[in-house]
Amino acid sequence: MPNIHGERIRLRAAEKEDIPNFLRWINDEEVTENLLFIPPMSRYEEENWYDSMMKKPASEHVLVIEVKDQNNPEEFTPIGNCQFHDINWRIGSAEIGIMIGEKSCWDKGYGTETMRLLLEHGFNTLNLHRIWLQVFAKNKRGIRAYEKAGFQFEGKFRDGDYQHGQYQDVHFMSVIKDEWQNWKQNDD
Fold first, then answer.
1. What is the CATH number of the domain that holds 155?
2. Exposed, middle or buried by CB within 10 Å (0-12, 13-18, 19+), for 156?
3. Structure confidence by residue, pLDDT tens digits, 32-70
4. How many folded domains does the chain comprise?
């Protein structure tokens, strides 16, 4: 998959050399507090996850989110990852997920820019019709980034997940291609 370039970031295919960063992020409780799976993971588990992901179609491979170095625009620093999940080609639908693992990069708009690049790629390159995601209701930072990228609230699963000794409501958000195109024209 070719790199996807934004104004301040690029998305590139993950490589085995990215596993140490993934492992560091996935084992940081503050980073994973709002993710819908159960960390921590060992190096062995992360390598198995990577190997199984690489057996999927390229459209479902993990992409590394990298920030452009302000002093040297040719240099990039990894800050997280993102991915299309469970693409249903018959109906043109896919789930997406994102993790900004570098806490120093939170609240700087990188999540919103990543989501916009993913939507552009999903609708224009993969020719998807609908892109959706799941997010904990308590994840205000994530919800704000998704709304800024054009996602709309669809509904929720009350007590849809259990983490850290508590049930959590899970919100579902989505973007439809036609709505996104209209939203994008108005946002430009």
1. 3.40.630.30
2. middle
3. 888 877 667 888 998 998 999 899 988 999 999 999 988
4. 1
